[in-house]
Amino acid sequence: LFNEDEINQFNDIPEDAIINFIKLSQNETCEINNSDIFYIQFLAKKYSVIELSKNITDIIKENKNQLIFDSLYFKIKTLNNKDEINCSISSFSKDEINIIAYNLVNYINDDRIFSFPISVLYQILSEYSLHFQGYNTDDDNSIEKDRQIIDFLFKCLDHYGREASILFTIINFDRFRRDVIRKLSRNYLNTFDFNMIGPKLLK
């Protein structure tokens, strides 16, 4: 299915994606997972299955919001090296970043998000903070969302290490400041870059 240059890019392609591509190419019906649809689109274009390629592209366009996370994941996952990733990041539209930011709590428990470079997470969290953290609401839902975002940031520290410290400069931690500092001091003293947080957490 893949040439030598593509093997590393697609070494973890789901088996279902290959099976469903073959079925669809033969005009059979099948159920496609969101995570497979971009692999099928790639294969349809690669092998010039024109009608299938057009149909899959139309489905993606019609369901852009629902597929945005899978789309970004696919773009990043299938790049060969850091230079290509950095180039691709610059091509992500503000709309793509905003859609994920507006629905961030729905994505932070999906481990695929840890394939996103820090620069992309920084953009997403910046948009999230801009739109959802400026109102200081004390309702239970808002507090729980903030708690989930904080837990996510600590997971970023676990995954990315010191590089993830910059993400803590974005989010407003007023209601959890003591808890965050205590956890950073106790568990991440040798990981977290305390120069990053400035007065936001220490005041």
What report would you give on this structure?
With 203 residues, this protein is mainly α. Helix content is 63%, strand content 0%. The protein contains 12 helices and no strands. The chain has helices at 4-7, 15-25, 37-46, 50-62, 64-77, 82-91, 94-102, 104-107, 118-132, 140-160, 177-187, 198-202.
Features:
203 residues, mainly alpha, 0% strand, elongated
- Number of strand elements: 0
User: What gap, in angstroms, lies between the N and C termini?
Assistant: 57 Å
- The helix content, as a percent range, equals 55-70%
What is the CA-atom radius of gyration, in angstroms? Answer: 20 Å
The number of helical runs is 12
Would you tell me the overall average pLDDT?
86
The chain-level structural class is mainly alpha
Sheet with the most strands?
none
Oligomeric state of the chains present here: single chain
In terms of per-residue confidence, which ranges show pLDDT below 50 for 5 or more consecutive residues?
A: none
* N-to-C order of helices and strands: HHHHHHHHHHHH
* Percent of sequence in beta strands: under 5%
* C-alpha geometry: elongated
